[in-house]
């Protein structure tokens, strides 16, 4: 990825703040999972949901979650695949693990809207996580 600015000083400052903090509260949303490789459109959508895209015209996986499928069988076929791909398959490029390494020895707590279980998969203690929208 190409950047137009040098963020090294800001990153170093943040790292020092984390190292000296008594406690850390992490707030995370969809952008963190996107950065980790969990994209819901494009190549990943075509790879895993090409049949649904062709039949129903979805533009992203999220849209399929709310689609009024004609049968319960199709609805659950979509949901079971969606859950398997976004909860159980490994895609993470190390984003969550690197974040965990920064805070693992700290008194931390995570508030997240993400339902993809990536915090626990990276080693975060489930008792230090609050999923505001539940967990798949």
Summarize the structure.
The chain folds into 2 domains: 22-38 and 91-136, Rossmann fold; 39-90, no CATH class.
Structure report:
- The longest helix has 17 residues.
- Helix content is 50%, strand content 11%.
- The protein has 136 residues and is mainly alpha-helical.
- 17% of the residues are buried.
CATH topology of the largest domain: Rossmann fold
In CATH terms, the superfamily of the largest domain is TPP-binding domain
* Secondary-structure-derived class: mainly alpha
CATH architectural group of the largest domain: 3-Layer(aba) Sandwich
Computed over alpha carbons, the radius of gyration is 18 Å
Q: Domain count, please report it.
A: 2
- Determine the mean pLDDT: 91
Order of strands across the biggest sheet? 1-2-3
Order of helices and strands: HEHHHHHEHE
Which spans have pLDDT < 50 for at least 5 consecutive residues? Answer: none
CATH class of the largest domain: Alpha Beta
Short descriptors:
three-stranded parallel sheet, 2 domains, 136 residues, Rossmann fold, DHS-like_NAD/FAD-binding_dom, mainly alpha, elongated
List the helices and strands and how they pair.
Elements: H1 8-20, E1 23-28, H2 30-35, H3 42-56, H4 61-64, H5 72-88, H6 95-103, E2 107-112, H7 118-121, E3 129-131
Parallel strand pairs: 1-2, 2-3
């Amino acid at each position: 990825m190409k950047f137009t600015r040098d963020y090294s000083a800001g990153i170093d400052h943040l790292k020092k703040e984390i190292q000296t903090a008594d406690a850390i509260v992490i707030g995370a949303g969809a952008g963190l999972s996107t950065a980790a490789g969990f994209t819901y459109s494009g190549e990943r959508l075509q790879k895993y949901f090409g049949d649904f895209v062709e039949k129903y015209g979805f533009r992203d996986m999220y849209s399929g979650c709310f689609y009024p499928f004609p049968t319960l069988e199709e609805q659950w076929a979509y949901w079971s695949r969606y859950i398997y791909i976004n909860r159980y398959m490994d895609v993470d490029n190390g984003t969550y693990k690197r974040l965990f390494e920064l805070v693992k020895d700290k008194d931390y707590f995570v508030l997240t809207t993400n339902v993809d279980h990536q915090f626990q998969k990276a080693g975060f203690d489930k008792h230090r996580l609050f999923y505001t929208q539940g967990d798949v």
